[in-house]
């Protein structure tokens, strides 16, 4: 079995910065395992400015930040496996992964950092069955499609916004030519439509409906309109549209850690950590994963401190390993 000093599970920006920090703190034998076909994760689709200030002392776009960290990573001998899914973790730090070239493979790490992030999950953004219609998508999917694939999921969307990200997506869609029929603001404990958030769509002439919700959807196969109701004055109006974009909940990708009985926070569903270390010695977590359902409230997430902590653990006497017979490729 091939052994590594550090295995980083997840090649988004937190996993990348965790690996970089470990390498810059003396760890020599590091592998990053990423399920997608490129590094950077969700930050690749964030072409607006607002990233990297904690490392660069200036805010840049998501792709610029990813490219900067990737270039710094490749100044080191780091092994990167793309299109590879981690399917199991044991308490003695054995990782099982699968990909199309190697099949199912086991590797062992002196330390492991989980940077698996969060994923969108529909949990009832509106109290109406949505699986009857096409044209209903999540904010995250709409953002990915317009920025990475270059097309609109709808030319006349209605957007249910319960986070800042939804406003950023609305602005982006408007710039790309969408005629946004309305943004329904759904405030919550993590999102207030304050001056900072209003600024995101200021001057874009997008109708905004405060404290309103979708109460009916129209259409045969595809959405053709929605009825919205105000929670303040109970008034109802109908908006014609060809798509409905929903802010949905974000949940941490914590299943592998749960399988080895790592304790989870009951509110955020994230692994409980002490200086980024989970309840298993030498197994760390960072990035959106440790913020769980509150991940969207964080402004500048990176894994640098987790990488430093892992490096401290690895350099303890007897903790390191040698990687004999490497079959991975530095990318």
Would you mind describing this structure in some detail?
The chain is an alpha/beta fold and 331 residues long. 24% of the residues lie in helices and 29% in strands. It has helices spanning 13-24, 53-56, 62-73, 139-149, 164-175, 195-201, 255-259, 288-291, 304-314; strands at 2-9, 30-33, 49-51, 60-61, 78-81, 85-89, 94-99, 103-114, 118-121, 136-138, 157-161, 182-185, 208-210, 212-219, 223-230, 236-240, 243-246, 249-252, 283-285. Helix 1 links the parallel strand 1 and strand 2. The longest helix has 12 residues, at 13-24. The protein is elongated, with a radius of gyration of 22 Å.
List the helices and strands and how they pair.
Blueprint: E1 2-9, H1 13-24, E2 30-33, E3 49-51, H2 53-56, E4 60-61, H3 62-73, E5 78-81, E6 85-89, E7 94-99, E8 103-114, E9 118-121, E10 136-138, H4 139-149, E11 157-161, H5 164-175, E12 182-185, H6 195-201, E13 208-210, E14 212-219, E15 223-230, E16 236-240, E17 243-246, E18 249-252, H7 255-259, E19 283-285, H8 288-291, H9 304-314
Parallel strand pairs: 1-2, 1-8, 2-5, 8-19, 10-17, 11-12, 11-17, 12-13
Antiparallel strand pairs: 3-4, 6-7, 7-8, 9-18, 14-15, 15-16
Helix pairs in contact: 1-3, 1-9, 4-5
Summarize the model shown.
The chain is α/β, with parallel strands linked by helices and 331 residues long. It is built from nine helices and 19 strands. The chain is elongated.
| CA radius of gyration | 22 Å
Say how many strands there are: 19
- Spatial shape: elongated
Give the overall average pLDDT. 91
Query: What separation lies between the terminal Cα atoms?
Result: 22 Å
Order of helices and strands: EHEEHEHEEEEEEHEHEHEEEEEEHEHH
| Count of helical regions | 9
* Content of β-strand: 25-35%
Give a quick account of the main beta sheet: strands, pairing sense, barrel closure. 7 strands, mixed
The percent range for helix content is 10-25%
Structural class: alpha/beta
Which segments are poorly predicted (pLDDT under 50) over 5 or more consecutive residues?
A: 322-331
